[in-house]
Design goal:
The protein has one domain (5-159, 175-253): 4-Layer Sandwich (Deoxyribonuclease I, Chain A), CATH 3.60.10.10. Helices cover 20% and strands 36% of the residues. The chain is built from seven helices and twelve strands. The strands form two sheets. The protein has a six-stranded mixed sheet with strand order 2-3-1-12-11-10. The relative contact order is 0.16.
Length: 254
């Protein structure tokens, strides 16, 4: 699909056991470097370290990566989580990208949400374009309002609810405003939970979709999200495709 920017979670920086199991076929490169190839710049934020390897978040970009920093937001010893912050210069504008993977427990997610808001507020100017994407593990969609209110972002699947055949927006007429429903992305074989998000600020959203199907389900237990954007701040609106997929294991792709 040749996306310009990819937000990846649970990327295998090193996996000795899989390398032994697939001896002679496993790439010598780290997974994020293998996926980046010769077409993308890459930044990797190592989160979980174990005896036989490590994994974390990664950002792959056709645009240069001006800077990268990994914020450790691990909330307890059993889950290693991080927020990878990268700055991309696009059309003379600094785009701030945050690759996110929040915890499985509600209390952890609340504290990590506060850490994410603090990280964004302290590292990106208030009017800077933002891309925040990843696995939020937020199946109740309880965090989105906080992000909208405090970071002035929108989720790419936010839309009005219209009645089919009538074209009337009943929610607008009732005064309840637009429906804000993230995509269903988990499990990939039959997605029912809304775990993954792409939040944007300073971008026009032209399309947003979920890549369903058996071929995608073989790559990950989450379905990928793909969004096409244009940069509002640029005088020459630069289009960019952004995508992310969690747990895109290189061993399954070979």
């Amino acid at each position: 699909m040749a996306p310009d920017i990819l937000f990846l979670q649970e990327v295998q920086g090193r996996r000795d056991l899989l390398a032994l199991r697939h001896a002679g076929k496993w790439p010598a490169q780290a997974q994020h470097e293998f996926l980046a190839g010769d077409t993308h710049h890459v930044a990797y934020g190592m989160n979980a370290i174990y005896d036989h390897g490590h994994h974390g978040n990664a950002l792959l970009s056709r645009f240069p990566i001006e800077s990268a920093f990994n914020h450790d937001v691990s909330d307890h010893a059993y889950e290693s989580r991080g927020i990878l912050h990268c700055v991309l210069p696009i059309a003379e504008v600094s785009i701030h990208c945050y690759v996110v993977h929040l915890g499985l427990f509600a209390g952890s997610r609340l504290r990590q949400t506060a850490a994410l808001i603090e990280a964004v507020s302290s590292t990106a100017p208030a009017d800077a374009p933002l891309l925040i994407a990843g696995d939020f593990n937020d199946w109740t969609n309880s965090l989105s309002k906080t992000f909208r209110d405090q970071l002035h972002v929108r989720e790419v699947f936010d839309q009005s609810l219209s009645v089919r055949g009538f074209g009337t927006d009943l929610r607008r007429l009732s005064g309840r405003g637009p429906k804000k429903t993230p995509a269903r992305t988990f499990p990939a074989a039959m997605p029912i939970l809304q775990l993954d998000r792409i939040y944007v600020r300073g971008f026009e959203v032209h399309s947003a979709r979920v890549l369903f199907g058996a071929s995608w389900a073989r790559l990950s237990d989450h379905t990928p999200l793909v969004v096409e954007l244009s940069l509002q701040q640029s005088a020459t609106a630069v289009s960019a495709q952004c995508a992310f997929q969690e747990k895109q294991h290189a061993g399954r792709e070979l």
